Amino acid sequence: MSKRDFYETLGVAKGASADEIKKGFRTKAKELHPDSNPDNPNAESEFKEANAAYEVLKDAEKKAAYDRYGHAAFEGGMGGARQGHPGQGNGDFASAFSDVFDDLFGDFMGGRGGGGPRTRAQRGSDLRYSMRVNLEDAYTGLQKTITVPTSVGCDKCSGTGSESGVEPVACPTCSGMGKVRAQQGFFTVERTCPTCSGTGQLIKNPCTECSGAGRTEKNRSLSVNIPAGVETGNRIRLSGEGEAGLRGGPAGDLYIFIEVENHTIFERDGVNLQCRIPVSMVSASLGGDIEVPTIDGGRSRVKIPSGSQSGRQMRLRGKGMPALRGGPTGDMFIELAVETPVNLTSRQKELLREFGGIEADNSPEESSFFSKVKTFWDGMKS
């Protein structure tokens, strides 16, 4: 009886791409699953047929030979059939499906990893440390020593986890693979080896200091350089300063997250600073000079124009924060807040009443506003 065309078996067109062939086989594998075909006694043989087709078409060389010679490419006239060749359809079903399982799901389950044993060394975890700095330190930068609780390599066993430096042996349960396989119907499922926890090796004589882990818990002091211009949310990475690796594996990294505290005088906006300066009604009316603080600890003299109102802003160039990765320094913006006097003496009240009596168009904004109000009321009446 003539064999069925491999492309037809997988439900794809001739000349289909590798992705189309794999997709077609996945669809067939689902269709032929025994749970979906309880009344189909031919499910296993049909799956073998699909598997045989896939084994040929997924291989570029075999596919090229099949496209040219058909089934004859794998029969005696074309070099003979190999024992257990996929084209013969006589391989063990569970073994065949196990291979397919690895091919389809190896990326998610860890695969076979080339068939070799897993390495016992494992990279250490990354660590996070939150650091608060004030705005002055963010302006100048600083060097700070921090204490980090972490895992470090065991000194007694030099990180090997084994007493007296004795080398670990391959796990007898998984033969050093780190995984074991269990047959479930047509499927072969891989799980982490329960004996070695996936390391693939066992330590017969574990170190008494670290119990075979190759690392111990300890507080470490580290000197950290905080660059000028850091902001809240900035992250500093210290390579290899995280948790020590398991059984001699490489250490993880330490990430320091910066939080800049709020300041009592300045408010930060990127590289710029805002500073609200209260001024008396007299100074705002007559004008004058005031001294304002700067983030570097200095002072700057600022001239207030006469007739200044609350909310007026003035800029001091280059008096802001430095840029973290180069670039020009920010500016400092001063916002005036004209203060109404309180706790007036009798003489002060008398003078203000006198001023109010002789006031002549000294409040243009007030006059403009109430002029608009009068127009609004007149319009409502009409």
Summarize the structure.
The protein is α+β, with helices and mostly antiparallel strands. It is built from 9 helices and 15 strands.
Fraction in helix: 25-40%
CATH architecture of the largest domain: Orthogonal Bundle
Number of helices: 9
The CATH topology assignment of the largest domain is Helix Hairpins
- State the domain count: 4
The SS-based structural class is: alpha+beta
How would you characterize the largest beta sheet?
A: 4 strands, mixed
Unreliable stretches (pLDDT < 50, length at least 5) are 77-119
Strand order in the sheet with the most strands: 10-11-15-14
Q: Provide the β-strand percentage band.
A: 15-25%
Rg from Cα: 40 Å
Give the SSE layout.
Elements: H1 6-10, H2 18-31, H3 43-57, H4 60-69, H5 93-109, E1 127-133, H6 135-140, E2 142-153, E3 169-170, E4 179-184, E5 187-192, E6 201-202, E7 215-226, E8 235-238, E9 254-260, E10 266-269, E11 272-280, H7 281-286, E12 288-293, E13 299-304, E14 313-316, E15 332-339, H8 346-358, H9 364-381
Parallel strand pairs: 1-9, 11-15
Antiparallel strand pairs: 2-7, 3-6, 4-5, 8-9, 10-11, 12-13, 14-15
Helix pairs in contact: 2-3, 3-5
Task: Give a written overview of the molecule.
The protein is built from 9 helices and 15 strands. The chain is of the alpha+beta class and 382 residues long. The chain folds into 4 domains: 106 residues, Orthogonal Bundle (Helix Hairpins), CATH 1.10.287; 84 residues, HSP40/DNAj peptide-binding domain (Sandwich); 74 residues, Sandwich (HSP40/DNAj peptide-binding domain); 36 residues, no CATH class. The strands form 6 sheets. The chain has a 4-stranded mixed sheet with strand order 10-11-15-14. A hairpin with a 2-residue loop joins strand 4 and strand 5. The N and C termini lie far apart (105 Å).
